[in-house]
From TrEMBL:
Residues 1-707 form the Alanyl-transfer RNA synthetases family profile domain. Gene3D superfamilies: 2.40.30.130, 3.10.310.40, 3.30.54.20, Bira Bifunctional Protein, Domain 2, Threonyl-trna Synthetase, Chain A, domain 2. It is an enzyme of class 6 (ligase). It is found in: Cytoplasm. The lineage of its organism: Bacteria, Pseudomonadati, Bacteroidota, Flavobacteriia, Flavobacteriales. It comes from Sinomicrobium pectinilyticum. GO terms for cellular component: cytoplasm. Keywords: Aminoacyl-tRNA synthetase, ATP-binding, Cytoplasm, Ligase, Metal-binding, Nucleotide-binding, Protein biosynthesis, RNA-binding, tRNA-binding, Zinc. The keyword DNA-binding does not apply. Belongs to the class-II aminoacyl-tRNA synthetase family. Its EC number is 6.1.1.7. This is Alanine--tRNA ligase. InterPro entries: aa-tRNA-synth_II/BPL/LPL, Ala-tRNA-lgiase_IIc, Ala-tRNA-ligase_IIc_anticod-bd, Ala-tRNA-synth_IIc_core, Ala-tRNA-synth_IIc_N, Ala-tRNA_ligase, Ala_tRNA_ligase_euk/bac, DHHA1_dom.
Length: 870
């Protein structure tokens, strides 16, 4: 059975049992501060469990792209070393939202594995939660009983809180679970040690394949558990592990999910998989990581220096490093695997094909730049090694290499050990720990529990139509961080405040009680489906009703920028071509920023065409045509553009201005004329194949024009109100050039005269032709003068002192034979004399210069110079 078939049959099995098949949510999470990446199938349904939102259907099934590289679930260091943990993997799942519970979940799981997929029952073990005194929870006797009805008792194993109580993170929905494990060892191995003893013992051939979670609780900030409004089922089966079992192989990497990638890696790197452990680990790391990175980029997360982008960059760098060290790859090669990956996965995940070009380009550029870092790091490491005492490199040095230059520590360790040098690993760890604590202290946020004033499942957003309305507070909580200090997050029963999203900043404003008590809202954000308002203080009477007022001016400017962003998107596709896709957007009240895929710099002519296009739409005065709550398919059929990596619900909102039509949740102007004018202020590169345009509209554009015309007026005034200022400036430039030439030739003539005068002043001192004189000329002229004199004369010792732009400059020239004969050194002379002008300098034995800040010392310098030839 191919992996494609396995995925299909899983979904079909639950579809036959009245489950609705839903698509995978994007792997990159954008609106949950507690989670960067989807780490389990249940993430996208979290709000259903908490009762904050009504589910689309009571039974759902899907295959979810997961990434476990940060936070509570982090498998990164295992990946490649073992054969069954991945960074990115697919989690097959079936869900019940307050519908069926343990009985059906257990029965269907068993039926699917043993009847549909015909897995040998003797190789399966199941676990159940044994209870936990910490949480005051008893053992899950219900699950035990249900299992006992279908599985022999010796195959049912009690499990601890660690393995059998599933939690998404430190807070959130959770509950006891039952796992299904499989033993795929050979008969002999199984005879020697019973599988039962190896369950949950990290044995690579006795692994968990499916976890059935019975969601009943919500873990609160203080660690306590609270009952959820209803009981739910959340199951997760590792797709790649299931493929391993059904395809009769002993490693996930031997399934058809990975073999095409591995063959490709072997071909590109000229290595063989399955011969030597070190090579094998490297091959697995690369085959695994390219998937994670490619899917993250396709989901819209580019590698970067912070947050989720940094995690992606680190995964890719781990792969590059393994290729570099163990497969001897000194040139980019991982990007070449994307083609194979796309061929293999595009049926289930079409984004990997449509975004292929971008993914390839981004990976290639990352590889190039990191390989350069590695090269530089190797050079630096060489210098560190040559300076090292007692064949030992300190932790601090290694940390500097790691922290400042991005050079991986394990590579440092490897190179050092190859050269017979020791590394203070402990010292390194200490430095690393210190750095971690510094950044944790800077970013740590403590979040209190919600204080719920009124149960209210859905907080309605009314801000498309109203900028003020009456609201009541339904819940609030305190948050504090080093960065922002103490603050409150407040949720209303309905709100006119737009929460940050789709690139648009959150609204600001205030709420006011009937007796005039005001609390300012300084930002608004979405957290899952709650609209959270940030306030520095709470109103005195929390339970009262309030007038909620959005800052109209900011909203007006932000809306203009958002509508302009749509027109810009349309213009770019018209002017540059259909390959242009939105890759990021930032809509502020004073400017907008738009990132898009395009493979070369946008020329000034193209930029002009784009700007003109947008301004033409503004002048056409196109009215806003908005459709809310229309089915996704209808909107797409009508021609609306959807974005990759964006999670759309079943119903969407479409925004149309003339021929521009996009799915969008943001706020917009009523008519393009309200944008007033659109000006591009910048164009730059963000990453390989991604360009950025910055622009302004409305008030910012007006301010721009005003300041331009102010500057112009000033220029005219300075030019004495010349009729044609440009002509006047050109004339001035020409005049300036002529004058410069005249000054140059005058200076040359003066230097010539000066040379004559100076030659006359030469004195015979101790066999040297000596001169110390003050010549206040440009340094380069002084130098020429000294060399000029030296050309024709032997045994010359010249010291010139000059005052130039408020500083003192010394120039010393000594004929070579004189310098040798008398062991004179011009460098030493200027250093010595430099002290008198409060400065220093140096050079060669026959020519040196010095500078200092005290021109007052020049007479002394001239006097003292003589001493060197005496
Ligand atoms: P394990 O103990 O093997 O790490 P887990 O307890 O972390 O598994 P769950 O969080 O219960 O796993 O996830 C549900 C299922 O997802 C697991 O039964 C397993 O089949 C699969 N799975 C979990 N982590 C990974 C991973 N890193 N790579 C591939 N599959 C995984
Ligand atoms: Mg795990």
């Amino acid at each position: 059975m191919t992996s494609q078939e396995i995925r299909k049959r899983f979904l079909a099995f639950f579809e036959e049992r009245q489950h609705t098949i839903v698509p995978s949510a994007p792997m990159v999470i954008k609106d949950d501060p507690t989670l960067m990446f989807t780490n389990a199938g249940m993430n996208q349904f979290k709000e259903y469990f908490l009762g904050n939102r009504k589910p689309v259907a009571l039974r759902v099934t899907d295959s979810q792209k997961c990434l476990r590289v940060s936070g509570k679930h982090n498998d990164l260091e295992e990946v490649g070393k073992d054969t069954y943990h991945h960074t990115m993997f697919e989690m097959l799942g079936n869900w019940s939202f307050g519908d069926y519970f343990k009985k059906e979940a257990i029965a269907w799981a068993w039926e699917l594995l043993t009847e549909e997929f015909k897995i040998d029952k003797d190789r399966l073990y199941v676990t159940y939660f044994e209870g936990s005194s910490d949480d005051g929870l008893r053992e899950d006797a219900e699950a035990y009983k249900l299992w006992a009805g279908i599985v022999p008792e010796e195959r049912i194993i009690p499990g601890s809180k660690k393995d059998n109580f599933w939690e998404m993170g430190d807070q959130g929905p959770c509950g006891p679970c039952s796992e299904i494990h499989i033993d795929i060892r050979t008969e002999e191995e199984r005879d020697r040690i019973p599988g039962r003893e190896l369950v949950n013992k990290d044995h690579p051939q006795v692994v968990e394949i499916w976890n059935l979670v019975f969601m009943e609780f919500n873990r609160k900030a203080d660690g306590s558990l609270e009952k959820l409004p209803a009981k739910h089922v959340d199951t997760g089966m590792g797709f790649e592990r299931l493929c391993m079992v059904l395809q009769g192989v002993r490693s996930n990497y031997d399934t058809d999910v990975f073999t095409p990638l591995i063959r490709e890696i072997e071909a590109i790197t000229n290595s063989r998989y399955g011969k030597e452990e070190k090579t094998d680990i490297a091959v697995r790391v690369i085959a695994d990581h390219v998937r994670a990175v490619a899917f993250a980029i396709a989901d819209g997360q580019l590698p970067s220096n912070t947050g989720a982008g940094y995690v992606i960059r680190r995964i890719l760098r781990r792969a590059i490093r393994y290729g570099f060290t163990f497969l001897n790859q000194k040139e980019p090669f991982i990007y070449k695997l994307v083609d194979t990956l796309s061929n293999q996965m595009h049926q289930a995940f079409p984004e990997i094909k449509s975004q292929k070009n971008l993914v390839v380009n981004v990976i290639k550029e990352e590889e190039q730049s990191f390989l350069k870092t590695l090269d530089q790091g190797l050079v630096l490491l060489e210098t560190i090694i040559s300076a090292a005492k007692d064949n030992h490199v300190s932790g601090a040095k290694a940390f500097e290499l790691y922290d400042t230059y991005g050079f991986p520590i394990d590579l440092t360790a490897l190179i050092l050990s190859e050269k017979g040098y020791g590394l203070d690993q402990e010292g390194f760890e200490k430095e690393l720990q210190k750095q971690k604590e510094r950044s944790r202290a800077a970013t740590s946020v403590t979040t209190g529990d919600w204080v719920v004033l009124a149960e209210d499942a859905e907080e309605e957003f009314v801000g498309y139509d109203m900028l003020d309305t009456r609201v009541k507070i339904t819940r609030y909580r305190a948050v504090s961080s080093k960065k922002d200090g103490e603050m409150y997050q407040v949720v209303f029963n309905l709100t006119p405040f737009y929460p940050e999203g789709g690139g648009q900043v959150g609204d600001k404003g205030y709420i006011e009680s009937a007796d005039g008590d005001v609390a300012y809202i300084i930002d608004t954000k979405k957290e899952n489906n709650l609209i959270v308002h940030f306030a520095k203080s709470l109103p005195r009477n929390i339970e009262g009703s309030f007038k909620a007022v959005v800052d109209k001016n900011q909203r007006r400017r932000t809306s203009a920028n958002h509508s302009a962003t749509h027109l810009l998107h349309q213009a770019l596709r018209k002017v540059l071509g259909d390959h242009v896709e939105q890759k990021g957007s930032m809509v502020h009240n004073d400017h907008l920023r738009f990132d898009f895929s395009h493979f070369s710099k946008v020329s000034p002519e193209e930029l002009q065409a784009v700007e003109d296009f947008v301004n033409a739409r503004i002048r056409e005065q196109l009215p806003l045509e908005e459709k809310r709550n229309i089915p996704y398919h209808q909107a797409i059929e009508e021609g609306a553009m959807a974005l990759f990596g964006e999670k759309y619900g079943d119903t969407v909102r479409s925004i149309r201005f003339g021929e521009s039509m996009e799915l969008c949740g943001g706020t917009h102007v009523q008519n393009t004329a309200d944008i007033w004018h659109f000006i591009i202020t910048g164009e730059s590169a963000v990453a390989a194949g991604i360009r950025r345009i910055e622009a302004i509209t409305l008030d910012a554009a007006k301010e721009y024009f005003t300041s331009q015309s102010d500057t112009f007026r000033e220029v005219k005034t300075v030019l004495k109100n010349a009729k044609d200022p440009v002509k006047a400036i050109v004339a001035l430039q020409e005049e300036n050039n002529t004058l410069k030439k005249q000054v140059d030739s005058l200076l040359k003539a003066k230097a010539k005269n000066l040379k004559g005068e100076l030659m006359a002043k030469l004195e015979e001192v101790n066999g040297a032709r000596f001169l110390a004189a003050r010549v206040d000329l440009d340094p380069s002229v002084v130098k020429d003068l000294a060399f000029d004199m030296g050309k024709g004369l032997k045994n010359l010792f010249v010291l010139f002192a000059a005052e130039h732009e408020g500083k003192a400059l010394l120039t010393c020239y000594i004929s070579k034979e004189l310098a040798e004969e008398k062991s004179l050194n011009a460098g030493q002379v200027v250093r010595e004399l430099g002290k008198l002008i409060q400065g220093g300098g140096g050079g060669q034995a026959f020519f040196a210069t010095a500078g200092g800040k005290n021109p007052g010392g020049i007479p002394q310098v001239l006097e003292k110079a003589r001493e060197f030839v005496k």
